[in-house]
Amino acid sequence: MSEIETLLLRAEEMLAAKFREFDNIAVTNQARVLKAFRKHQVSDFHLHGSTGYGYGDLGRGVIEALYADLFGGDTALVRPHFASGTHALACALFGVLRPGDEFIIATGEPYDTLHAVIGLNDRGLSSLQAWGIQCRIVPLREDGDVDLQSLGNALSRKTRLVHIQRSRGYNWRRALSLPAVAQIIATVKACDPHIVCLVDNCYGEFVETSEPGHYRADLTVGSLIKNPGGGLALTGGYIVGKEDLVQLAAERLYAPGIGQHVGATHGFNRGFLQGLFLASAVVGACLKGGALLAQTCEILGLDCSPRAQAMRGDIIQAVRVPSRHVLLEFCRRIQASSPIDGHVRPEPGQLPGYECDVIMAAGTFVLGASSELSADAPLREPYTVYVQGGLSYPHIRVALAQALPALLLD
Asked: Which residue intervals of the chain bear CATH 3.90.1150.60?
């Protein structure tokens, strides 16, 4: 037996109780999803899409009813026309905010691709700042938690919306648990119940047994090629929440006066429905894979976030590596263990929305799908690789056996 295989077996033994916890979460979520499918009487004819304007698309209607139910909202906008989670977030922000408004980011510096949307480094022609919408960022505390006191002090009469990023992005911080999200929302609502609380839920769906909407989030936003698509959604995003706010986002995506009443789904309904049904199991596999990587890294003496036994708020596992060379080699071995483009050698490069070179290992059936096993990293110090996804635990296990030796190179 190889040294790496021995390491993995030891890590799995240490994680036995944690794996049972993840299995219990997956079972509870699977029961929730199945109950919703039965409640809304999902049928074969819902699997088929529409063309043209998309009028009377019953499949689209039942998908949005399922998302509203499962994510704790009045209504939902679940569409293939969202190109990414960032696109869905931009529609929500531009839909709700108006010139002269202020919004606050409660969770420190946001994910890289939101910088241009907000206009943090360049006002641009189309950013929120270019439209006279101001943004203030509340830094995280030194321990990585949200600074609730500073958040409360930052709120003002001009504050229209508070943005809450649940996942870590490319930052060395804990992903937010739902109780932590609830604390942020309670702080905001105590100051002014009319301030909109928007949760960026990307990477966090089905990690726990409820969602932000169940904790008074006004809007919950995410991508279908991450957790809720279950590996079968080919594109798309969702916005769930209060009816008037979702309608504003729909008018931003389509046009005023039309809103969510149009939008052909073509052949996407089947993947959206089947992917949602499988999402609980897929996320369960992702959680196990992340914990396995963390446990092996702890044994090897590498710093990782979250720790193996910690509570998880998303499916991302961050690992600090000793050098650029190790980072690149680890990502290349993940790529080599992928079912698609396993023969391709990823190289760092500039990608839209990112401010430095990024390497992305993602040999996925759906291009860029973070529900599938991938590893990516910005090429900046301290060198940190972010690993997420995996449609099945056996694939994650095989891929880690191939990639972990890279961490021993230096």
From this structure: 3-26+280-408
Structure tokens at 362: 């993602």
Tokens of 18: 């944690």
Task: Name the most confidently modeled range: 70-74, 140-144, 166-170.
Answer: 70-74
For residue range 185-229, list pLDDT tens digits in order: 999 999 999 999 999 999 999 999 999 999 999 999 999 999 999
In CATH, the architecture of 29-275 is 3-Layer(aba) Sandwich (3.40)
Q: What pLDDT score does 401 carry? A: 97
CATH code for the part of the protein at 3-26+280-408: 3.90.1150.60
**Residue 289: alpha-carbon gap to chain centroid:** 16
- Bond into 382 cis (ω within 30): yes
Nearest to 248 by CA among 238, 237, 236, 260: 260
Q: Where in the chain is the domain with CATH 3.40.640.10?
A: 29-275
Non-local CB neighbours of 40 within 8 Å, separated by 6+ positions: 62, 65, 66, 69
Is residue 147 within 8 Å of 141, Cβ to Cβ? yes
Helix boundaries (H) for 112-266: 114-118, 148-154, 178-191, 243-253
Q: How many angstroms separate the CA atoms of 263 and 363, rounded?
A: 30
**Three-class SS of residue 248?**
helix
Chain-centroid distance of CA 175 in Å reads 10
Which pLDDT belongs to residue 184? 98
Instruction: Spell out the residues 6+ positions from residue 135 whose beta carbon is closer than 8 angstroms to its own.
Output: 102, 103, 104, 105, 118, 119, 120, 128, 129
- Determine if the pTM surpasses 0.85: yes
Longest dimension (CA), the chain: 65
pLDDT at residue 90 in the model: 98
